[in-house]
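Q: I have two molecules that I believe assemble together. Could you output structure tokens for the complex as a whole instead of separate predictions?
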Amino acid sequence: MHLGATLRLLRVDAGLSLRDLARRIGVSSAYLSRVENGVDAPPTQERLTAIARELDVPPALLMDVANRVSPYVAGYLEDVPAAGTLLLDIARRKLTGAQLARVRAFLDAEFPLREVRGDEPVPPLAPLLCAERVVVQLSCGDYEDALDVAAGRLASALPGVDAAKLAEGLRQREGEAPSQVGNGVAVPHAFVAGAAPVAALVTLARPLKVDAPDGQPLRLVVALVDGHVGRARLMRLAHVARLAGRGLADRLQGAEEAQRVLETLEELEALR
Amino acid sequence: MNPHMLAQLLVQLIVIIGVSRLIGRGARWLGQPLVIAEVVAGIALGPSLLGWLAPDAMHWLFPPESMPFLKMLAEVGLVLFMFLIGLELDPKLLKGRGHASVAISHSSIVVPFALGAAAGALWLYKSLSSPDVPFSSFVLFMGVSMSITAFPVLARILTERGLMQSKLGAIAIACAAVDDVTAWCILAFVVSLVRASDLAHAGLTTLFALLYIGFMLLLVKPFLARLGARVANREGLTQNVVAITLILLLASAWTTEYIGIHSLFGAFMFGAVIPKEGGLAAALAEKLEDVAVVLLLPVFFAFSGLRTQMGLLDTPEAWLTCGVIIVLACLGKFGGSAVAARLTGLRWKEAGAIGVLMNTRGLMELIVLNLGLDLGVISPTLFTMMVIMALVTTFMTTPLLRLLYSPEDLARERLVQTPEAPLPPSAYTVLLCVSHGQAGPGMAVLSRALAGERNEANLYALHLLSPERSLKARADEALDPSAASGGALAPLVGRAEKLGLSLRTLSFVSSEPARDICRTAQAKRADLVLLGWHKPLFSQTVLGGTVHEVMQEAGGTVAVLVDRGLSQVRRVLVPFVGSRHDRAALGLARRLVKQAGAEVTVLHVTSPEGAGAGRAQVEELFPADEGAAVKLKVVRHASPEEAALEEAKAGYDLVVVGLGAEWGLEDRLFGVQRERIVRDAPGSLLLVRHPEGATVLAQTPEGARTQGSSPETTPSVGARS
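A: Yes, here they are, computed for all two components at once.
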């Protein structure tokens, strides 16, 4: 998972320039640029929290994007080794996403978080999809073709929207900030005034060579359309990046049917 | 400077930066720009607060003998800062904003200038100035200091509130830019006037200033443009380039100082002429910004704070005067720009927001005031009053803006002004839909003819896998790696490669092939959807099943190729009676003429009793200049279908025929007996359907754009027939 690329995607979508964000969180824009390009180490927890505050997304979400086993978890485990035993218990039981969700519900009830603001649940991706907007096993020679196919599916869910214009919108956004978030996933997104959020998902039969931040070929495209610019949209983008980090592309790789894709996604999303 | 002085200066810097950042946190919490915090920090460190509470501490921290060093540091910081302001000033902001922003910016200078000058002339000169200050200088200075708008603070506020991209933000920033340039020009003139001993000197200074501006624009700017291009292309911003730029900057500042119009003007001017494209400006700004804004600018604020003596305003009258100045300043700036904005047609709410924004004076005002104090135009008392005015006007911007222009308004505005720009024209685009490998070679040949020698078309080959078949296809792939590009597409791709045709392939699993074909065609903006026909010919109609569905749903021309060994497109027949499908067929034939040099025969069938009106139509469609390649045959026949079939037997490579009952072709599911022309014609056929109400696109690349008057390109003609 590429944190830097995700940060850039979110920053551009929030309408902040590199200098603006750097100034607001009190770092140099050169440093932030290095982080976005993955040259520098991922930011510390404090900085990431500051970035999340400026972008108005839950800090926990960004930390989750940051790493598969996040250093914040690692730090906690070092402080409280007993927590490690608990994790081991969970691992031995091989709890599924749905079961983990129940564990979390228990945690929420028993030990509510003090700072409630900014930690509300992230809107899931699966409800934005339906079998009609899932394209499996696309093989094409160019990323643009995948965008066009996604745009075609999205347009039929948006009355009065022309697929060509939507494709153009996706491409234009792509020009402003590349939507590759690493791990073989791209999140092209477009703005359609007043539209309810919808998504289309395209799995690629043949991985595409693209300019990915982590050099992995593209295997999955999740196209998002929103009617409102803001928090919910940024959270969706970050959430897809997090799913990418959890191996979404790997899990959907062999799926032959749209229904299978949706099931896999729901399972993966049960614990957000 | 002895070592002790250096230690003194370092302590001062630590305190200044520390206090500014500390108060900055508070300002952030209040939603105020950082500038406010820095100014307040400066004032707090000066005689107004620290000097009042603990005079000894202030004296220890800022002894009078350390002031010159502080002043120099502040001046250098200002030079750098003004350079940054110039860098941020993109000339694109000034261009093409329409008369609205011109009117607003002019009135937002003229009105406060007039008010300030009038107040200065009628009232303040007598009460707050000394006789040795020239009357004209004082009046002009008061005018300028009232009409300042802080471009950088404004830009920051707009960015922080996410207004930069809105219409309001665009107008405000353009006005602020104009205001800035104008105010600095007037100020330069005032400074030269004050410094020159008499009018002749002032004239000379103005002349030199004009020469300097001309020099910067005509010689330095092109040089910098070349430097910028170099930075953008190869080298990046090396330290050498930074050094050159800094030397030029300092030279420019020195020149203006020497001429007699303050060094700040030179720094600003130099920043303004640096090209904003190609990254030189951005890279420079990034390098210099932290030093200038974090380190040196607070020194300037502290320095002006040290000169601000609230203690001088010790009478109710003084505070009253201060209040009146604030009211005048707001009235002039806010009123002037809001009324002008309203007159240019903005709503009151927006006009008010513009007024509030333009009223931001921020640190630019402080710069001007310090200049005035240095020149001795204004007294310390008036200086203090004006500083308070600058603070108040900047402070009230953010809350007022929030009041006038809430986030909901912003969201609404964004919804209203979504861009509805038409898409740019693209090349002739054909979507080739292949369901079976057999159809591939013929489609490649036809595509070649449609694209021409120079590949003047975007060709996409689409193969849809049915959900059940995909498993098998993948199994095949595993067995035969050469078929990895999709088995069904292989013959098409193979032939296309032989013909030197470039096409892009696409394939995916689809449970609704017809819809997916139409959706992909729409996304690709395909001018033509070409379907392959592969099933055994006599068992089923051509125009049924998926073909029928595609034809019903497609928004553009759809053609079905019935391939009977099509290997070249030389002789083409177009049976014609005049329906919109026939016209689309003619359009395709016309493209074949242009791109592949095909010979087209148009068979015009008239009913035995009908008049020859159709002939004129055909001639209209195929103008005389193309006549060489187009033969027109007119036949009278009771059954157009029979006539066409007879002609089709005369050895044509391809018969391009529009759908329609007259040819026995209708796009609905019907019996075998009706599609006689498909069954009995010996050669290959291209069946064309054009949906109602859509334009017939692109006969030839140039034809579609330039021959706008030609009948096929207008939808109304299709309706007429």
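A: One point stands out. The two ends of chain B are 96 Å apart (CA to CA).
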